[in-house]
Amino acid sequence: LIEAIALSENRGANAEELFITRQMALNAGVGQHPELREDLVELDSEVSDKSDRLRNLDAERLANFQSRYLDLERRSVIRNQLGTAQAMVNGAEKNNAKKRAPVSLKNAQLSLTNAELMISTNVRNPSGYRDAVSKANKDATQLTNVMTVIDRNGKNLDESVAIKLVAQNRVISGLSKELGAVALQSAAAQAAMKEKNQELSSDVAAQKR
């Protein structure tokens, strides 16, 4: 496609704008996602067929090409930012979360939908969707943790109880990390003190000589 546009005798602003739009989609990682890559190849083929007439394409046809490249960019950013969260939700749904953890599932689904909307309106403005994406990933992780606790307790545990257990586990995990940090600091302090004592002992021995 790039070569076709570059060699076009009628290459002009229209071709340049289309190339830039396509490049932005590539920069967003379209080629990393098989389903998007297929759509990209198909769209590139259509544009290549018209490369010698890009300057003279009617506004509607050109806008269609550009909007499709823009949509590929949007879909790629969504997959990049929410792919893991979506996989978590899909896995929970297959594991009957609708019945076993409906509240957690609903929260995760709503957060995903909201994050997708925020990305769609801020594709090239990460600060515009960062918080929504963070919440979507957080709620998807919460759903996964709740389902894990339910699975480990005979699969009949009430969701509200599972949520409390997840919160307790989070507190315990936080305390463990804090204790681990304190232990590391203590070990470092002891090592520094030992080194200092060795230096003092060396000085005393030197003075006795």
How would you sum up this structure, described in words?
Helix content is 81%, strand content 0%. The protein is mainly α and 209 residues long. The protein starts with a helix and ends with a helix. Residues 7-11 have low confidence and may be disordered.
Describe the structure in brief.
This protein has helices at 2-7, 13-27, 34-49, 59-94, 97-100, 102-121, 130-152, 159-208.
Q: What descriptive keywords fit this protein?
A:
8 helices, mainly alpha, 209 residues, flat
Q: Can you write the helix and strand succession as a string?
A: HHHHHHHH
Mean pLDDT: 83
Q: Which descriptor suits the 3D outline? A: flat
Multimeric status of the protein: single chain
The portion of residues assigned to helices is over 70%
Radius of gyration: 28 Å
Report, as a whole number of angstroms, the end-to-end distance: 84 Å
Instruction: Point out poorly predicted stretches.
Output: 7-11
The total count of helices amounts to 8
**Share of β-strand residues:** under 5%
Question: For the report, how would you describe the main beta sheet?
Answer: none
Q: Can you count the beta strands?
A: 0
